[in-house]
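Subject: complex prediction, re-run

Hi both,

The earlier run crashed halfway through, so I resubmitted it with identical inputs.
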Amino acid sequence: MLEDRLLIWKLNRGSKDALCRIYEKYRDDLLRIAAGLLNQTNSAEDVVQDVFTEFVRSAGNFELTGSLKGYFAVCVTNKARNVIRSQNRQQAVSLDDAEPVISNFKRPDQWIIYDEEFNRLNNALAQLPYEQKEAVILHIQGNIKFRDIAKMQETSTKTAQSRYRYGITKLRSILDGEAPK
Amino acid sequence: MKPTENIKRLIKNTKIKTNPAVNEAVLTDLLNKLDSSENIGLAAKQPNVWRIIMKSKITKYAAAAAVIVIAVVLSTTFLNKSVSPAYAIEQTIQACKNTRFIHFELFRPSNTKDKDAWLEYDDSGQIKNVRVNFYFSKGNELVMVWKQGRTQMWDKQRKKLQLFEDKIYTDKIIFFVQRYDPVSAVEHIQKMEKEGKVKIEIDEPSNKREPIILTAIYEPNTYALEGPKPQMKEVFSIDQSTKLVTAIELYELKDGQYSYIGVWKFPDYNIAFDAQIFNLEGELPSDVDIVDMMTLDIGLEQCDLTNEQIVIKVVREFFNALIAKDYEAAVKLFYHESPKTEAGIRRGLEKINVLRIISIDKPFPCSPMGTWRALCILEIEKDGQIARLEPNDIFVSHVLGHPTRWAIDTGSLGFLKLNL
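This time it finished cleanly. Structure:
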């Protein structure tokens, strides 16, 4: 916590070392949260890059009020929701689609490398209702308090806790069901 | 049952592995952004100046006076709008007429640069050379150089250069030029207006320092070369004194509202480029992998089949090859850009045990780049059980460098994580 405040102070004065340290410290956590929430590699990677980009843009007058990890986790969650919302509306027409010069080449390299364990967990998370998944990921991976999760989900703390509990119970049953008998 | 604590531990402790090259590319991009950040130092040097100013009574009175002045200026501006427009599109066409060099840039809504494009025309006004730099997220960059029908495509991150000559691709380049090069963009919308596909509105402000705004509204499915598109809107900003286009903003209609997609900016006209900009040889690293797409044997010939028929044929033959475990045939039907990737594709395809094709629905075009989507239902064997598989990402497209051939597109079967 104290280290984060010091890093932010340095970053606000343009320290590249501070940015490198923050990036190294939180990159993997954020990718894990985004991948868990979205279950789509490309969107998850884009969300994390956007969060870091906006964070860098705010350098100079960034004020840290709580934990930096919590701040990042909330940013990732908000952006993940936007992605889901836009997907629900209709398949987005990207700028690349808006003109025809790009064709037949592969997407850029993947950032996240999936291994068996990470895949297994993400596949199980994907089977949870979104609010439950969000409560589980934010509480366990983002260290966010239920009170704050409730605010984000615009519900009561009790409901956020229930969502978390249901999510954990369901995950347990999914992962148990996969275990060899 | 696993205890709850075990589940929590699993979620908390599951590690993620990341691609070191992408980690570095993203960090480099962030460091560059930090370098160009205008906020740095401001907070440190003058933390409370704004607050001090805004607390002052004098400032409050001054702010009120400023609001009144702005209101007066705005109302005057609106009242003067009754002047009839004197601008005509032909003035822009005339102003652009002898342009031989154009550089333009595309910015996304987040204001990040998405593309740089350089165009050169010959003396007769025909397009001679095109270069487009595509800037992707995660720091990847792709450079396309087109010279009189022949294209070079350089993927910097993968260190790969593709060479091909493809009429369909050339048509797309020409279309691209027509769409965004201001020399022909205004002629293009004029032509589309005559065909009833575009509505044009012109707003010419009386203040000569403000740009003329030309709005072109495209009917659905008329914006792109092929494939479905919603209603699109382009907003041209035209300099009142030079009559040159300075920017084109793009919007698409979503849920009844125009959603901003990006903006093309035209920073300079007729400033000759260094000829080397269209010559990649000097920029390529020594270890770049050069692939001549014309030498690859991929896909099925269309012959006299319609697009719909060839798409179904490609999908059917591809899955029949998988059913027969004829991976050589399946890999040949799967679009790839280098013989070096064939082993990886084959390993990926071997992960799926297709027993039979239950159905293939009527395919439909799904992108302006000529990619088609085919929905099909397969019967597969998984963990000793027979199951149905309905992959929703089977895409079929032309093969680059072989415009009469079609193959399963690289974006297909993502769940197999094919090593491309």
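Chain B touches chain A through 84 residues (CB under 8 Å).

- K.
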